């Protein structure tokens, strides 16, 4: 009965990646890059928003940082990761933009990409998992607040399983995560 929590899952991925990585790619699974000129390299100068509003097929507002965002591990820690309060689809990246700004970081975006809104294919179907689309109870009021307390420091989870595999010759680990929900803090984590 649980709902999707993208931000908490990214926090878990960050924590479980250990010291083997120096940056992370927060990448929506429903956004496929179509332009080979997109840059996924180390974001040395600060957070790099690959799926910028000028390129994303759906989201075009200036403060948008969702879709695909690259950050050094140090920058992600400066933001205390993402808020764990966002169950269901959306708004977690809008809150994360405020965290980035609060940490004094500047978001950079691609230049020289000429494919515009055809740069990505967006495969998001709102009819799938309808429970993740709805705003429930107090979630409607809470979704626009900045979470100054939660993030990497208080994400609660357990690993159900780990599966090692190779993707195009690169070693990967797939984690099956069970997130804990505090019903007194976020009663909208369940549906039905």
Automatic annotation (TrEMBL):
Pathway: Protein modification; protein glycosylation. Pfam families: Glyco_transf_7C. Its EC number is 2.4.1.133. It comes from the Eukaryota. It is a single-pass type II membrane protein. This is Beta-1,4-galactosyltransferase 7. Belongs to the glycosyltransferase 7 family. The keyword Transport does not apply. One of its GO terms (cellular component) is Golgi membrane. Signal peptide: none annotated.
């Amino acid at each position: 009965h649980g709902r999707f929590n993208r931000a908490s899952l990214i926090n878990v991925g960050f924590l479980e990646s250990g010291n083997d990585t120096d940056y992370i790619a927060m990448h929506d699974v429903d956004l496929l890059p179509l332009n080979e000129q997109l840059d996924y390299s180390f974001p040395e100068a600060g957070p790099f928003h690959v799926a910028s509003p000028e390129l994303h097929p759906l989201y075009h507002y200036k403060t948008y940082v969702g879709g695909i965002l690259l950050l050094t591990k140090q920058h992600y820690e400066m933001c205390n990761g993402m808020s764990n309060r966002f169950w269901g689809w959306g708004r977690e990246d809008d809150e994360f933009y405020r965290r980035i700004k609060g940490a004094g970081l500047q978001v950079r975006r691609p230049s020289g990409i000429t494919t515009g809104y055809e740069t990505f294919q967006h495969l998001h179907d709102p009819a799938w998992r309808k429970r993740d689309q709805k705003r429930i109870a107090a979630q409607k009021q809470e979704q626009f607040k900045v979470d100054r307390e939660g993030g990497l420091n208080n994400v609660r989870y357990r690993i159900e399983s780990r599966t090692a595999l190779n993707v195009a010759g690169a070693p990967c680990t797939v984690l099956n995560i069970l997130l804990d929900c505090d019903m007194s803090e976020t009663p909208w984590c369940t549906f039905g």
